[in-house]
Here is the input.
Amino acid sequence: MGVVLSLASPFLGALGALVVNKFFQTPGDAPGKFDSSNRAGFDTIGAESKDSVGWTVDWAAARERKERTMCGDRAKCGDTLASQVPSVTNSERRSRRFRAGLWLGVALVVHVSGVATRAADEPRKYTEARLRMVEKEIAREGVTNEAVLKSARQVPRHQFVTEELRPYAYLDQALPIGHKQTISPPFIVAYMTESLDPQPTDRVLEIGTGSGYQAAILSNVVKEVYTIEIVEPLGRQAAKVLREQGYRNVECKVGDGYKGWPEKAPFDKIIVTCSPESIPQPLVEQLKEGGRMIIPLGERYSQVFYLLEKREGVLKQTKLLPALFVPMTGISEEKRQVKPDPTKPELRNGDFELLVQAGAEGAEGAENVRAAEVGAVEGWYYQRQLTVVDTVAPQGRRYVRFDNTDGGRGAQMLQGMAVDGSKVSSLRISLQARATDIRNGATAYEKAGLIVHYFGPDREPVGEEVIGPWTGSFPWRKVSELIPVPPRAREAIVRIGLNGATGTLAVDDVKMTSTPR
Here is the structure.
């Protein structure tokens, strides 16, 4: 049944020291020093983990490390466009360390020595950063519900992370909160909330409390929030923060979200922030007639948001955006039928022929599907400034094109996969690429290319490899490189795009093979 915790008063202090010092060191860092550089896309929500993006990369250093590890000289690494890598000094290489995690946002490096107890009294720099984040990363990317935007402008996200991570609180990225979990990226939180069509009279059930940030956003736009967390330390900490921050209409419980909260049912809306393979039946039963549920469904590394509406006792399903969440643990994970093989890592839909089909399954009409969701590329998530071109392509009939005129703005797509570095020594990645007037962004990491970010057993970053960067203009050409896999790697995120650079990048026929260790 779990332990029931009640909530009250505005967020004072972050979520305590949740394993950051242990998990987030990079080679050369002093023990306990946080470096956001290697943070990539596991958007961990509550009992599980979520979906997110964007990194900064020391391109030259990564290339040099890869070539030293894999082949000793460039000639052995295949057709790579290596001539486009600029020369840099050692001091420049040292200075180009990873700085901002997941989604390439504004590089907000804000050091905070003390934080006021309430949002109204917080330092102006936090308020300004939050308002800028809402405008650039949420409203500009398609969220239009004014109540949701207003809540995002009000909720001090920096209070939901440790003090060490507060400089990164207003980037659109997941941040670690301990126990292999993260606080969700602000866009994902706003997107899921808007998809529910929240009303002031709604009673909402959240599965996966995590840091409490999603519950806080909901609290401002609905009547009551009931939230369940399977990881007890996270559930208790979230309840404490929400209580201190004054969210009196939120009630927390520690337990298995698969079972829902029957004592408080029925619910007008249900939001699931972790990914089961199929819809938990108890949640269906606890959803009120006419109610809505948003949930990421699918395999471990290939999921899609579904919007479910209960009509005359039957769920009508509408596919939304591709997503990447860690699995719903507990009963749900025990029932999972399809599990990835980390000894045989694979990329899906690298020719971009498969698209998310617009419209509802079992429901009348497709008018509820956003234009941005129609034709999204299956298997790839956090798609930004991406166009699927349906014409003659190097492979098949489709390719993808990234366009960006605003330096520093994200234009990319990502895909997660399982890879066991103790069993896999290297990956051969090939693709077709075409560039038109690509120019690097203002910072050293804003460059077009393909990046692979590796994560260890505790989802800690253990390395990154790059293919690129690409600049200028060139016709379709094949790029093929062999990149090493760190022995500690257990998961990876592949990112393709402009990464903050400007211009146009077209990509097709992305393939990957692995070599046993």
